[in-house]
């Protein structure tokens, strides 16, 4: 399983730092950096659907992609422009399981 790079904030913008001084949540939204990277395209090219898979979590981290909210489901998403918080990482377990089941990588629990 290859986990593709997550959406990042542009430049030096830090959504976590922004939250500490913001009056409104909307002040800390950002538009994720554009189209698929060369690395993502490579990961997808080697994913064969049998024993190599490429997992795109962009919509888990940024449900309204290309707009990324600093807080999703009441949890702070990023601790810096690139890395998610440990709390958000734990909260991603169910959405990731759903993606893996929907893509046929895992079978549904009984």
Number of helix segments?
5
Total number of strands:
6
Order of helices and strands: EHEHEHEEEHH
Helix content: 25-40%
Largest sheet: spatial strand order: 1-3
- In terms of per-residue confidence, which ranges show pLDDT below 50 for 5 or more consecutive residues? none
Strand content: 5-15%
Please explain how this structure is put together.
This protein is α+β, with helices and mostly antiparallel strands and 110 residues long. It has one domain (2-102). It is built from 5 helices and 6 strands. It has helices spanning 15-21, 38-46, 58-61, 86-91, 93-102; strands at residues 2-3, 30-31, 54-55, 67-68, 71-72, 75-76. The strands form 3 sheets. A two-stranded parallel sheet has the order 1-3. The protein is globular and about 50 Å long. The two termini are 23 Å apart. The model has no long low-confidence stretch (mean pLDDT 91).
């Amino acid at each position: 399983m290859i986990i593709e790079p997550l959406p990042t904030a542009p430049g030096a913008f830090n959504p976590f730092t922004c939250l500490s001084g913001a009056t409104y949540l909307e002040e800390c939204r950002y538009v994720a950096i554009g189209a698929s990277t060369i690395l993502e395209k490579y990961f997808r090219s080697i994913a064969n659907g049998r024993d190599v898979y490429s997992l795109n979590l962009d919509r888990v981290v940024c449900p309204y992609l290309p707009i990324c909210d600093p807080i999703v489901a009441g949890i702070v998403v990023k601790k810096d422009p690139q890395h998610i918080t440990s709390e958000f990482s734990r909260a991603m377990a169910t959405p990731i399981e759903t993606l893996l089941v929907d893509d046929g990588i895992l079978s549904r629990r009984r």
